[in-house]
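Q: What would this chain look like folded?
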Amino acid sequence: MKLIEDESLDVLTAADDDFHQPEPDRWAHETSWFWWYVPQESIGGWAYHWVRPNIGVSGGGVWVWDASTTSYFEAPYFTNYSNQPLEAGRDLRNHQFASGLNLRMVEPLHKYELTFRDRDLLSLDLVFESAMPPWVGSLVGDPSHAIHFDQFGRVTGKMTLHGSTYHVDCVASRDRSWHTRDERWKRGSIGYCDAANDRADIAFLAISGRAFVPSGVDAHRVRQEEIHSGYLVRDSRRFRLVGGSRSVQRDAETGCINQIAINGVDSKGRTFAAIGIVASRIAIPNPGVHGVVWTTLIRWTFDDGTIAWGQDQDAWPIQQWSAFRRAAKSAE
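A: My prediction, written as structure tokens:
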């Protein structure tokens, strides 16, 4: 899609498809994430990998979930490594991660091939083609530079899972990060959700945060969070979100999200609202840090009736999630 107006910072080049020069810190951390889904089967899939170049290790993996379970122990497929080797001379534009995922850049910042084989358990032959330029919402440092971007694209191809082959044709997102990220992840929990219709001409990314209530009967009553970054795409115009909220309804037994309401306003004063109904989800160890993330496939309905699909990442430091759930159970 050609954007008429776009508030994203135009700072990326073809070189950003490769690994970046790491900061001189033990916890220098670089990630690569793609996801896809088969909505009629409530199936979602991730390919998420990270490297810590200064200590020579890598991790992450590939997983597929459906509506049959919420635990990664029981998911149709799950690999998530944490101490794999990192070879010298690596090039992310044509790279095989230690998990076995092959990533090949076909066209810079636009088209990528992903292939994967693990015995008769899972195989992937997927192509990601961008639907819009990458979104860079902010810069850091002096001189200023990007350390993260997000991008919607169409994912096509096939996935064979336990002998059943699924045709993949969806609009999904990818992202990349390169900065320091301590494994002892103790920051406040975050919500990271997005949605796009089939043409990707209506879409949003909403990133929110919430305060940590460590104990007491009100700890389980976290419901509404302030959106602090992201964007809205409408009428071929993409502008940053400057306000709004993410409100969730949680399952009393597990704490997972059953429904999300997003309300937002962008820098041009455009408002939108969307209701997300969960199709499937999985709780997994947050790759590369000491945390847990609920990864959720969602069917969204915008306030104008537009139907879209997307995902939500409900990420928590382990002890924060533990306190949140213990408080909820004690209040029952």
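The chain is about 5% helix and 55% strand.
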